[in-house]
Input
Amino acid sequence: MKKVVVIGAGIAGLITARMLADYYEEVCVIERDEFPSEPNNRQGVPQSFHPHRVQPRGGLIMEHYFPGYNEELIALGAISSHEEKLVVTNKYGTLVNKEDPSSFKIASSSRALMEWVLRKRIQEISHISFLTNTEVTGLLVSEDKRSITGIYTKERRGEKCEKQFPADMVIDASGRSSKLIRWLEQIGLSVPEPEVLKVSLGYSTRYYKIKSSIPNEFVMSDSDPEQGIRAGIFTRIEDDIAGLILFNAGGEEYPSTQPEEFQEQLKHLFASDKIVKLMERLEPVQGPRGYRISESIRQHFELMEDWPSGLLVLGDAFCSFDPIHGQGITVAAIEAETIGKSLEAQRLHPDPQFERNVLLRMQQAIDPAWWLSSVADLRWRGVEHGGPYELKGVDFAQKYINLFTKKAMKKADQEKDNHLFFMQFLMNALILPPSEYFKADVLDMILNDNGSEEEMELRATLRVQDPELYQQKLDEVIPLFQLDYDEEIKKLLETLQPAMS
Ligand SMILES: Cc1cc2nc3c(=O)[nH]c(=O)nc-3n(C[C@H](O)[C@H](O)[C@H](O)COP(=O)(O)OP(=O)(O)OC[C@H]3O[C@@H](n4cnc5c(N)ncnc54)[C@H](O)[C@@H]3O)c2cc1C
Output
């Protein structure tokens, strides 16, 4: 195959470009920004101010395409998850784990450094080129409108020349601000209504200088929407810097971007004791700076029977997530891998419906992440799910997860046994299939909670007494997820078995 264009050099665009280099003679990444000459934030990715962490499944795929990238980040000062103590606090207690729940090493760095390392790697590949300061403004289409044959571009500097750029395949990785819907409409196609999570979320991040003598800790302080308690995340990155994120959804009162108010709000987190004590030893250096998102949007392009050949889309342009769950990069990596596997299969058995079937497979990757993050966000008053699609089992899953969390924290606290917590972590990290978490024997185990309020709430939604009928009920209530958990993921899960048993 000849020439492919990737729109956008964000994380999805970079992983995709690397993957495409195995299949195309020429890969061109078109980016509206100029790249910084050092690892710095860019205007085109305003979220890059905020810490970005990759889940192990995403990290595994990135290691495949960029071997040793985690080590390279660590050599540049990023923090290895193997050198980090994990602290999780919620309404049921505190869990301290000396190691990351996954044996897989993840480097904790700024987003700018992560992009820098991936970009440098790509710049070494001779048949990948970057065209920067160039905005994609539309799609070139064949006369019968069935195929995309390239793109229109406009320079952002100098003469601001407009050009046509022919290509055999165009892949949109231009993120939340993607104009793909407008471009499709301009060529006469109508796009199905998307699924929308009206989430009204607010982030605020402040950075601190941290002495290298202070031990590395990754602190996750869970939210409790019922009590209006925000989530807080404390994470260390390169250059002896630590970031503290405050988060809530529902739009009632966003986390503050005023230093004094921000420090005050820290006192109301579940992990406030720990965080306030830490803060006394840190010196603020940047922020707090906010980020607000009114809607997470999941497109359903795969439903378009007239979806043109020569066009694909992935990353935030296809589906954007609430960032507090840290799934965006991992889903983008799975999507890029899905395109790669489909291109491999296409060599042997060409599929005339290639693009639509790839979109469908990517949708299977989006499915569990979208459902799990929606289930969590819908606990906040004011968050709503909209669009002509059903979100199954939300109420039941919320009560199930709540009781499971209570059990997991109790086991960790009283028996120093973290395996239930790991199960939950690994499902959210898209390593453990939800069917292994929402299953009859697990349900039976968590329901044994001395008639607690959480147990009664779950029983009331379950409406089944006989444990023999649990699996049937779960199959009815919980969606059937079809994300592929391939051999590599199964192997990764096996390496985690000691932690899970
Ligand atoms: C506050 C916040 C925190 C986050 N934290 C995490 C986290 O911890 N973990 C995680 O996995 N995810 C996180 N995410 C999500 C993550 O940023 C994205 O999911 C991930 O970067 C993939 O996005 P993308 O590559 O599709 O888009 P982006 O990263 O937004 O990149 C899009 C690129 O396309 C370029 N572009 C846009 N339009 C055009 C055009 N017309 N022509 C040319 N170029 C164009 C932009 O300049 C940009 O470079 C966070 C998001 C936010 C908002």
